[in-house]
Amino acid sequence: MYKIGICHFRIGLKDGVSLEIAKWKKILEEMGHQVYLLAGEGIDPKVTIIPQLSLDLPEVKKIYHNAFCLLEDYGSEDEFIQEIFSLANQLEENINLFIQKYSIDLLIIENIWSLPLNIPAALAFSQIVELTGIKVVAHHHDFFWERESYNNSTCNSIRDILSIYFPPKGPDIKHITINSIARDEIKKRRGIEAAVIPNVIDFEEPAWELDNYNSDLKNSLGIGPQNIIILQPTRIVARKGIELAIDLVKELSRRENISLIKTRGFYRERRIDEESKFILLFPNLVEDEEYFKLLKEKIEQENIPAMFISDLINTERKIQDNRKIYSLWDVYLFADLVTYPSLYEGWGNQFLESIRAKLPIVMFEYEVYKKDIKKNGFKVISLGDRLSGKDENGLVRVDPLIIRRAAREVIRVLTDRSYRTRMVENNFSLARKLYSFQNLRKYLTPFFRE
């Protein structure tokens, strides 16, 4: 059995990589391995913290800015690169201390070699592999070439670093992507063979249910019983296409649509009347302040009820500062529908979470969904797969006819109980068959044999 070190910028938060790390850790420990965690930040006291791995460290932010925005803080390109390697060397020493402390004999590198968010960290891990020959599984959730923001490197040296270290080649490195598009691209661009391991979710645990802890969630948020909750569970970053969810809620909130739901009757016992509102609920992290500002302006302009509650939500329940903190799974229990209008996803954790919670999903059909997931027969309410442009603030749009069509389908799943049940049970059955922890055990076994 291996002593495994899982390494990422952050561990234990609500981002997709953190969620996948928790799943891999659980399965690897069940397989008999010892797992240790290394990150730049994390809420789990068992995580070894090296501050230079954090994306919020001023030095790391400075390097990122000078690499992809404007090379302005250094006297020359050589001075800039020397600073990067100097930080990489410091980080290498600390990583080696972690390896020695726990006698680590295999590293799982989570996205550090995929996106150049912390260039010194990528170099440090590459140097460790080259010097020690330690075995590595590189787990890639997305690559820099998939993001427009990395197309404009400020100097040739950064372009060289991207071509060598993102990701690096090596006889001791095995590569895993989370979708077939990335697998094909890494082969074409870098000549690297990779396996595909999709996201999974635990279907072996009991279903999420109301209990004494979470039963007061709606009251604590001030949400009346007659209101309809639309959950937007993703982090707030521009590629999530959240403005499309706002457009949908605006259409649903038209008086005639509320009246139609009242006339047809809600899918479960709840009084719907002229005072009922669609409330768009945001439980996850804000990671793009400028985009967040634009979304709030759009929400105000469209007069859409929305609640940002990330300060009350975590991956696990706890009491913090004498205040009850709910889990992300608690929020799903109170939702009537999930919006998932992401323009791009490496795979899609919230897609699986919504299916696990047996909720209908409204989604934009991003490329990975179309290529790897849709063919399995999942039933969703589609916002199409093409944008029709952007508004004056740069927020994306789809054809208004698509929004109206999606709204009609939403009204059906909110009023036709048998139709709704067939949809969510079909999705649940497929996901349990294809994307369970049992599947993950099968995928991981070949990579972690002695």
What does this protein look like?
The protein has 450 residues and is of the alpha/beta class. The chain folds into two domains: 3-200 and 438-448, Glycogen Phosphorylase B (Rossmann fold), CATH 3.40.50; 217-434, Glycogen Phosphorylase B (Rossmann fold). It is 42% helix and 17% strand. It contains 16 helices and 18 strands. The chain has helices at residues 16-30, 58-68, 77-102, 119-132, 156-165, 180-190, 217-221, 242-252, 255-264, 289-302, 328-333, 349-356, 367-373, 400-415, 417-434, 437-444; strands at residues 3-11, 34-42, 47-49, 106-110, 135-140, 173-177, 194-196, 228-231, 278-282, 306-308, 313-314, 318-320, 323-327, 337-340, 361-363, 381-382, 389-390, 396-397. Strands 3-2-1-4-5-6-7 form a seven-stranded parallel beta sheet, sandwiched between helices. It has a six-stranded parallel beta sheet with strand order 10-9-8-14-15-16, sandwiched between helices. It has a three-stranded mixed beta sheet with strand order 11-13-12. Helix 1 crosses helix 16. The longest helix is centred in the N-terminal third of the chain and has 26 residues, at 77-102. It is globular and about 70 Å long. It starts with a strand and ends in a 6-residue tail after the last helix.
Which descriptors apply to this entry?
16 helices, Rossmann fold, globular, 2 domains, 42% helix, 450 residues, alpha/beta, 6-stranded parallel sheet
Strand content: 15-25%
Count of separate DSSP helical elements = 16
Distance between the termini: 7 Å
Q: Uncertain spans, ≥5 residues at pLDDT below 50?
A: none
